[in-house]
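Researcher: Please translate sequence to structure tokens.
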Amino acid sequence: MSEKQNYDKILLASGIVLGLGVAAYGTLTFLGLNDKYKFTTQVSEKAIEPPPGIKKAAEVGQELSASHELKPIAQETQKYVGFVAPNLWIKEGGMEPFDIISGPPIHGNIPNKWFLDNGLENEFVYSDVLTRDPDNDGFTVQEEYAAKTHPNDPNSHPPLVSKIFVDEIKQFGFYLAFTQADGNDFTFKGMNRAKQEIWKNIVQTNGKFGTRKNTKDEPRFELVSVVKKEFKNPSLDMVETDEEAVVKDLKPTKNGQTYTIRRGTKYVIPIIDKKVNLTITAGPERDTSFEVEEGSDFRIPGDAKQIYTLKTVDNATQTVTIANKTTGEQTTLSKKK
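Model: Translation complete:
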């Protein structure tokens, strides 16, 4: 072994001895400090108060996160919420604003408040508001006001009968002739406009007639009576004796109407049946057309409650008269202008 190797081993051994000495000294010093500075710890049972301001901040945060209702504030006759001002108007040419509720009516004689109460704030600003139909039920604002119905509710509207119009009047007819009397047998004929025979029936008093052969048609007439009667013949300046019959119409829509007819083909009488095409222009079934026969009962499309009767049809004036079966009130209908 060389001298250099012996030297290195001596240095290593010396370092180890020195390190162990320093470690021992540190341990003894720490133990001495622990004896000198002994202390004990204890948990306090008293609640610790938060720093000032924390509690108040929590209350403010809770208030801000809570829901709050803004109650209307009264201003003259109007109420408004929060920072929304009352609805004020200025008359044309004027300078002073006024409350539209307490002020004079702007549209006709309808109070301004009525428009606001019925949700017509957006329509109120238009000059033609009275002719508008916000709920699209076929009735104008003016008509709804007059009827005391809701202009913004399509299920609330005036009676639909005021919105029925005549489209077309149809006529169907034939001639009735009392042609022969043979004891207790009496002959009647139905003829078309060209006076051609449609049907021919022989009947006695109280008998029914007015059907074509080989058909299942219901008899149209009933013979009520036949009497001999005097008639003046102006062309001959003399009095003639002839039979005259009273006939009742059995058609349900004719409601027992009777006709008086003299014997002879030159004394025929016209039997006219009329039907009308009507159109309803308002309500849930607006623009619906329907056909009604004169004398029959019907309901207006969109109104299942009321029943009406088509009383009369005037072809000359193109008008019809209907009557409410409950109230008896009559209404004249015409073509739409």
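Researcher: Any highlights?
Model: Helices lie at 3-36, 54-65, 112-117, 121-124, 141-147.
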